[in-house]
Design goal:
- By secondary structure, this protein is α/β, with parallel strands linked by helices.
- The protein has one domain: Rossmann fold (3-Layer(aba) Sandwich), CATH 3.40.50.
- Helix content is about 40%, strand content about 15%.
- Strands 3-2-1-4-5-6-7 form a seven-stranded parallel beta sheet, sandwiched between helices.
- The protein is globular.
Length: about 250
């Protein structure tokens, strides 16, 4: 049996997911990540996690395609049995996702379906498939968004799905309570990553607006989020359950 606990991070090859994987490894936890298509980026995360003394494996997964989930967990289970002597893991971080910036009047049905598939349907059914492989006493962390609390034009489709994830989190916390699996939501604010075309790194006007609207006076960075997710995977967070933890630096208070 593996001595270390194991976390599965979806969308762990870049952006917030990458930082989550690295911070989780710093807590002495082994990591499995999924990536959509960039094998080199996934390999770079593996190397960084291994440099911290933890094991890491990456599996390709299109998180918006639920038909891949059974085969994905077959692969994860085989890997765990081979390398860890168990087919169970401890922590699931539902992070994978894409952005959409469209006014309600301009949003197409295909765009709304895409947001639903990646941000809610995938989280619901990936979690459903994952639960039998999770150890009792584990944790599930769903990534939401500050946009569920505050509203900006063009974010409706994305934010609505994140709102659904927050409700799902509370129901999971109730239903998984007999197994002592705690479930929480982390809701980042605007973060300077490549997400949604990288606007939060390149759009000067947006950066100035967000910095001016945030109590701590700056745009968020990936390492503002990863440490919070890692904390929720530790014993220090054992009594945190069913909660929405917003990590925005105090945006639009």
């Amino acid at each position: 049996m593996s001595k270390n606990k194991i976390a599965l991070v979806t969308g762990g090859s870049r952006g917030l997911g990458k930082d989550m994987a690295i911070n989780i490894a710093k807590k002495g936890i082994d990591v499995i990540i999924t990536y959509h298509s960039n094998t080199k980026a996934a390999e770079a995360v593996i190397a960084e996690v291994e440099s911290l003394g933890q094991s890491c494996e990456a599996f390709q997964l299109d998180s918006s395609n639920t038909s891949q989930f059974d085969e994905f967990f077959n692969k994860v289970s085989s890997y765990l049995k081979s390398e860890k002597g168990t087919d169970r893991f401890d922590f699931l971080i539902n992070n994978a996702g894409t952005g959409l910036y469209e006014l309600i009047s301009e949003t197409s049905e295909d765009q709304l379906d895409a947001m639903y598939n990646i941000h809610f349907k995938s989280v619901y059914f990936l979690t459903q498939k994952a639960i039998p492989f999770m150890n009792n006493g584990g944790r599930i962390i769903n990534i939401s968004s500050g946009l569920v609390r505050y509203s900006f034009p063009t974010a409706s489709a994305y934010a609505c799905m994140k709102g659904a994830v927050e409700v799902f989190t509370r129901y999971l916390a109730k239903e998984l309570a007999p197994r002592k699996i705690a479930v929480n939501t982390v809701a980042p604010g605007a973060i300077a990553t490549d997400f949604g075309g990288g606007e939060n790194k390149t759009n000067t006007k947006k950066i100035e607006f967000i910095s001016g609207s945030t109590a701590l006076g700056r745009m968020g960075q990936p390492d503002d989020i990863g440490g919070v997710v890692a904390f929720l995977c530790t014993e220090d967070a054992k009594w945190v359950n069913g909660q929405r933890i917003e990590v925005t630096g105090g945006m639009l208070l």
